[in-house]
Design goal:
Layout: H1 2-11, H2 15-41, H3 43-71, E1 72-74, E2 88-89, E3 92-93, E4 97-101, H4 106-115, H5 122-131, E5 142-146, H6 152-161
Helix pairs in contact: 5-6
Length: 162
């Protein structure tokens, strides 16, 4: 009879032994379940990601094409290229400059000013807006002629006042 009890004890496994033998499998199943839940939850974003990349690339190409097709031009010139940029002397424009700011996203409108060389960066534009107490997003679309000897603060006032 003692052999039977001893045999039963050998056949019965403790929870600790079961956990030790199967914990790796259980952990892998939990990780797979979490990954599946995240994928199902964010599937729309995952599927739309190529469209997002394509849209970003199109914005970049559109900005480059706009710059190359006449958004920025010096006074008296009918066409322009990316080479036509504002030149500065003693913090004042060194020559007349005519640009067109197309209506659209405020960041793109500000970038048009940066591309034209009127500001070194969007942050530079924002800093100048702060100096004249206007909001950077008050920028207005239109065609502007910036005259020789204009300062950055005058330019900010002009593009935010229309």
């Amino acid at each position: 009879m003692s052999e039977k009890q001893g045999g039963n004890a050998v056949n019965k496994r403790s929870f600790r032994d079961f956990h030790y033998d199967h914990s790796d499998i259980l952990l892998a199943v939990i990780i797979i379940l979490i990954a599946a839940i995240l994928i199902v939850w964010r599937i729309n974003v995952i599927i739309d990601y190529p469209k997002t990349l394509d849209a970003q690339q199109n914005v970049t190409q559109t900005t480059e094409q706009a710059t190359n097709t006449g958004n920025v031009s010096t006074s008296g010139s009918d066409s322009s290229s990316a080479k036509d940029k504002a030149t500065w002397a003693d913090n004042k424009l060194a020559a007349d400059l005519k640009i067109t700011i197309k209506k659209g996203d405020k960041d793109d409108m500000i970038q048009t000013l940066v591309t034209a060389g009127l500001f070194t960066s969007p942050v530079d534009y924002q800093n100048m807006c702060g100096k004249v107490n206007v909001k950077p997003n008050d920028i207005k679309a239109g065609t502007y002629t910036f005259r020789k000897n204009m300062t950055k603060t005058t330019i900010v006032k002009l593009v935010t006042s229309k």
